[in-house]
């Protein structure tokens, strides 16, 4: 029963992706629309990060998690290696929780 919706979604995804390749030379997207789409992608990504950093389920995650994400964000902004960003952010969150800041 679950196989049919998965197959439909897979075929729809494939058709959507191949249409971009096939229509690339036939459609002209105005520069203003390209800028708006680029900004929309950034806004969506920031919204996902903010929601993930601040919420656990339907409740506030506490202060340790947002501070850990902020430390990771600063390290990523300073172009630290990805492994360092993840480990330091996780360690920051863990140490803050260990210190009693939930």
TrEMBL record:
Alphabetized UniProt keyword annotations: Membrane, Transmembrane, Transmembrane helix
Pfam families: AzlD (PF05437)
Annotated transmembrane regions: 6-24, 36-54, 60-77, 82-100
InterPro entries, A to Z: Brnchd-chn_aa_trnsp_AzlD
Protein's recorded name: Branched-subunit amino acid transport protein AzlD
Organism name: Labedaea rhizosphaerae
Upper lineage: Bacteria, Bacillati, Actinomycetota, Actinomycetes, Pseudonocardiales
């Amino acid at each position: 029963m679950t196989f049919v919706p998965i197959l439909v979604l897979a075929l729809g995804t494939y058709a959507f992706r191949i249409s971009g390749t096939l229509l690339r030379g036939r459609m002209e997207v105005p520069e203003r629309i390209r800028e708006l789409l680029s900004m929309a992608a950034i806004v969506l990504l920031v919204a996902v990060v903010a929601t993930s950093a601040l919420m656990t389920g339907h409740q506030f995650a506490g202060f340790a998690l947002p501070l850990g994400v902020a430390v990771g964000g600063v390290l990523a902004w300073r172009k630290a290696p990805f492994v360092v960003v993840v480990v330091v952010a996780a360690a920051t969150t863990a140490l803050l929780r260990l210190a009693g800041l939930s």
